[in-house]
Design a protein that fits this description.
Blueprint (H helix, E strand, L loop, with lengths): L8 H15 L8 H20 L8 H11 L7 H4 L2 H8 L7 H11 L3 H12 L11 H6 L11 H16 L5 H4 L3 E5 L6 H15 L15 H10 L6 H11 L3 E4 L10 E5 L6 E5 L6 H17 L6 E5 L9 H14 L2 H5 L2 H4 L3 H11 L3 H12 L13 H5 L18
Parallel strand pairs: 1-5, 2-4
Antiparallel strand pairs: 3-4, 3-5
Helix pairs in contact: 1-2, 9-11, 12-14, 12-15, 14-15, 14-19, 18-19
Length: 416
C-alpha cells in the first residue's frame, strides 16, 4: 500500500483504522508492521498538529502553582499586585499584569520574569506549537474529552485544558501537572506529549476505583507485598484479584491502552492531589508472564522509589537497564518475588525446560506456569519456547479488551 502525507479527512480515518489494527498485534521491534505503525503514527501526528492547534496556557498558572507550593492565599499577593480586587482580577484573567506587578511577583515569588512577561505574547497568539503537539484526536477518539462535537477552536481548547486540569486537581494547577518528573526505564521510544496525556488519563481513571485514598501510611516490606501479589497469579482470575488486593492495600491499579508513539508497558506514580500511589499498565504485550512481571516491577518502584508527588517511573520491559540503579533494583525485586533464585536454580524447569517441569515448579511456588515460561524465554533468548503455556491474549480478555482476530492457543493449568 502506497503511503502519502494526509490531506483529507477520509485518508486520516483510513490511517487511524490501520493504526488500530496494527496496535492489536503483538509486534516484534524492528518488524515491518512495527515500522509501518511508526510511519503512520508520524503522518497522523503531523496532520493533527496542522489541523488542531491549541493556544499556550496562561502564565498565571505559574503563579497559582507557586502559591500552592508555598501555601499562599490570594491576600498574600496584595503586596505584589496592589489590592485584593486586583489580585482576584489578575488570577481570573480579567486584568493583565503590569510591568510593576511583574517585577514585584518575580522578586517575591522567585518566578522568572520571562514567564510572566510572556503573558502578553500568549494573549496575542491564536495558536501554540507547544499545545498542538498533544494527540488531540486520539484523546477524543477514546472519549477522554467528553462530547467532541466541536464548533470552534475555543471549545477544543477548553476541553483539553479541562482534561489536564482534572488530572492536576483544579483549574489553577495545570502547570503543577507538567512539572512531573519522568524517569524512563528501558529504551522507551516515546512522544512526551502522548505520554503525558496517558498519565493524566491514568490519574483520572484511578479515582474511579472504590478504595481508601491517600499516601501509604504503613508500608509492608516490599518482598512480602510482592510475593503475595505474585501468588495471586495461581488463579485464572489473578489479574482481577490483584487489582482488588492492591486497592485494599491503598494502591490503585489502572489498565489503559498505550497511546500511539509510546512503546510503554507500565508506570508507577503518585496522584499529586491526595498522594495515592498508582500503577498503570498498558498490556502492550498481552501475555500472562509480561503482565505479572510488569506489575511487580512497578510495585517495586512504588514501595522503594516514589519519594514525592511529582515523580513518575515509566517503563518498557523489552529492554534491561544497564546502569539505572532504580530500574535494576525493581527488576531484581520483581524476579525474586515471582521465582526466588534459590528455587529456580535447583528446579527441573531451569535444567530441563519441559512442560512437565514447568507445571511442577508452578505448583510448588503457587504461581502461573506462564511466569516460569517467561523466565525460560528470557534466560535462553528464545521467545518461541513453550507457546501453549504463555497465556497469549488472556490478560486483555479479563479486562474486557477486544479479542484479537487470530486464533489463540488455550491450556488448562494442572491443579493439585
Amino acid at each position: 500500500m502506497e503511503t502519502r502525507v494526509i490531506k483529507t479527512e477520509a485518508q486520516y480515518r483510513e490511517y487511524r483504522a490501520e493504526i488500530g489494527r496494527l496496535m492489536d498485534k503483538d509486534q516484534e521491534p524492528g518488524s515491518r508492521d512495527a515500522e509501518r505503525l511508526e510511519l503512520l503514527g508520524t503522518l497522523v501526528d503531523l496532520y493533527e498538529k496542522e489541523r488542531y492547534a491549541i493556544p499556550l496556557p496562561n502564565p498565571i498558572d505559574a503563579i497559582l502553582f507557586r502559591m500552592e507550593q508555598q501555601g499562599l492565599q490570594q491576600k498574600d499577593l496584595v503586596p505584589f499586585i496592589g489590592s485584593k480586587s486586583k489580585v482576584s482580577e489578575v488570577l481570573s484573567g480579567k486584568r493583565r499584569l503590569t510591568v510593576a506587578m511583574i517585577r514585584a511577583l518575580s522578586d517575591g515569588l522567585k518566578l522568572s520574569a520571562d514567564v510572566l512577561i510572556s503573558e502578553a505574547q500568549a494573549q496575542k497568539a491564536d495558536v501554540s506549537d507547544e499545545w498542538s503537539r498533544f494527540p488531540i484526536r486520539e484523546m477524543a477518539r477514546r472519549g477522554w474529552l467528553g462530547d467532541v462535537s466541536w464548533t470552534s477552536s475555543s471549545d477544543m481548547i477548553d476541553k483539553v485544558r479541562h482534561f489536564f486540569a482534572e488530572a492536576g486537581g483544579r483549574e489553577g494547577l495545570l502547570s503543577a501537572y507538567f512539572r512531573r518528573t519522568m524517569r524512563i526505564g528501558g529504551d522507551v521510544e516515546t512522544d512526551a506529549y502522548a505520554l503525558n496525556a496517558w498519565i493524566a488519563r491514568v490519574i483520572v481513571k484511578s479515582r474511579e476505583i472504590p478504595m481508601a485514598r491517600g499516601p501509604l501510611s504503613c508500608k509492608m516490606r516490599t518482598s512480602d507485598l510482592l510475593r503475595q501479589v505474585a501468588q495471586l497469579s495461581w488463579s485464572e482470575q489473578g489479574p482481577l484479584l490483584a487489582k482488588e488486593f492492591l486497592a485494599n492495600e491503598g494502591i490503585a491499579l489502572v489498565i489503559e491502552d498505550r497511546m500511539p508513539r509510546t512503546h510503554l508497558d507500565g508506570a508507577a506514580l503518585v496522584d499529586n492531589v491526595d498522594g495515592t500511589p498508582i500503577v498503570g499498565l498498558t498490556i502492550r504485550h498481552d501475555r500472562i508472564d509480561n503482565f505479572w512481571f510488569t506489575l511487580l516491577h512497578e510495585l517495586a518502584h512504588v514501595s522503594l522509589h516514589l519519594r514525592n508527588r511529582q515523580d513518575a517511573f515509566v517503563d518498557n520491559t523489552d529492554d534491561d537497564p544497564d546502569h539505572d540503579k532504580e530500574e535494576l533494583e525493581a527488576n531484581q525485586f520483581a524476579r525474586e518475588a515471582l521465582i526466588p533464585r534459590s528455587e529456580w536454580r535447583r528446579s527441573d524447569a531451569c535444567r530441563l525446560q519441559t512442560e512437565e517441569a514447568v507445571f511442577k515448579l508452578a505448583r510448588e511456588l503457587r504461581i502461573h506456569p506462564a511466569i516460569i515460561v517467561g523466565r525460560i524465554r528470557k534466560e535462553t533468548g528464545n521467545y518461541k519456547r513453550l507457546p501453549k503455556l504463555i497465556g497469549q491474549g488472556e490478560v486483555g480478555r479479563l479486562f474486557g479488551k477486544r479479542k484479537k482476530q487470530q486464533k489463540k492457543e488455550s491450556f488448562d493449568v494442572p491443579r493439585e
